[in-house]
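Hey team,

Filing this mostly as a record. A colleague (T.K.) asked me to run one chain through the structure pipeline before their review meeting, and I want the input and output archived in the tracker in case anyone asks later how it was produced. No errors, nothing strange. Just documentation.

Input sequence:
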Amino acid sequence: MVQSSDSLQEENTPVVWADSVKLEPDRLYAVLEYRGDLASWNWTFYVPDSSVSPIGSSGTLFHVVNNVSDHEATGTDWKFEAETKDIVSSPLVVAIVRLGDVGFLGNYEDVVGQDSLLPMFKTVAIPAVGSAIHPAEFSSRVWFLDAICTLHDCGVVTCDDVWLLERELRRFAFTAMDKYLQNKGHDIVSVRS
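Output structure:
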């Protein structure tokens, strides 16, 4: 379980699902987006901009993307991106899971800026452009889990077991897929403190 660095939550804390839960300012979220397979998602981080209402209609999404290389049909080029996005109305969002409080890093601009989360995410290893890496060796999920370790090392979140976190996020996403496939939107998962 991931916990904010300033308030530890019990491992068996009850989970609150969906419609009654709203995104909160000064929080870091995991966002899993549909990518055409029932058991595979794009794994991203999201910080909502609290100056835009409703919360989540604008914010910064941190993730890696891959594109088939123009010069080599078998290779993929991975790159890190930070982009402004509305995840609340995005048709690809399956699950949103609160990871922790990042308000101690400053206001929204400070948190997503050059002196806070951005340089932490940029330190997470990405395969070199043009490398012929097997798809099983690197993905947005692999990058996300490595980034959780970096955030833990930097004191942003507490995550004692990244594999347990992965299992929990997958469980949330599998549960949310039913609703998603019925065109009823995404699930927001929050842990009750």
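Quick notes for T.K.: The CA atoms of residues 13 and 36 lie 32 Å apart. Helices lie at 108-112, 117-122, 140-153, 162-181.
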